[in-house]
Design brief:
The chain is α/β, with parallel strands linked by helices and about 300 residues long. It has ten helices and ten strands. α5 packs antiparallel against α6. It is globular and about 60 Å long.
Length: about 300
Amino acid sequence: MLKSLARFIFVGLAFALGSASAQARDLHIVVSIPPLAAMIAPLLGEQDRLSVLLDVGATPHGFQLKPSHLRQLNEADLVVSVGTGVDAWLQRALRNVSSPSFVAMQQPDLLVLPKREGGVWDKHDHSHGHRHAHSQDPARIDGHVWLSLENARLIMDGVAQQLIELDPSRAGEVVVRQQQAWASLQARKIVWQAQLAPYKDKPFIVMHDAYQYFEQDFGLNAAGTIHVNPEVPPSVRRMQQLRQVMAQRNVACVFKEPQFPEGRLEAVVRGTQVNVGSLDPLGFDGVVRPYEAFYDRLVQDFVACFK
């Protein structure tokens, strides 16, 4: 009798979920940058469409929207942005768009770190940041909030709620996917901590200051950045300053980025024994992958430079 009842409940549940899936709307979600797509992709069904505005290989700093982008925005069921200087170009466009939008920076309890001034800093000067500081001047905050794992969870939670509001019939499905994605990410974080632990005291220099949230999550030891402003090439004086820092701090690795020309980096490391690695805070080659895969690539690229 119990087996029959259990089978009845199971079949009934399967039928209910199947009916909900059959009624689900096809949603078109548009995001400003690839990491947001990476967070959202695991929450969506096969019938949904996910579009990234930022072109492959482009830097978000100073990006210009095309007419085709504006058409996507007007046709979207939901537009997702970071809401910092990183995608300020989208915030301006959204004023003339009828689609509903979700801004990551509006999430309660989001960790927001102040922008590091000058680009060469001592490891003891790292700020602990603060939560949900909307009153701060956007020009003074570090806009790369998606590189904090906890921030990623908060953004995924917020977008999941938006998806459910757009289509209540998929509520159970979205919640399950959300829980699975976060559980998997937590398990991977333990692996990443073990992989990064041997390199916590190894100073490194990056192409531009995009990794502060990543550093704070894993206790890493950044020594400076080549570009103070991503849109302005570093001066000769700055490159000389970085070479001094490399010698004084015994910098082990300098990281290039696919969105930046390598000429200035080559000038900084010329004649030294410093390793050159590659980091990509956007992690986009035209294929949208889950956030866990995006972050894993960041960790593995970081570790590879020190080996």
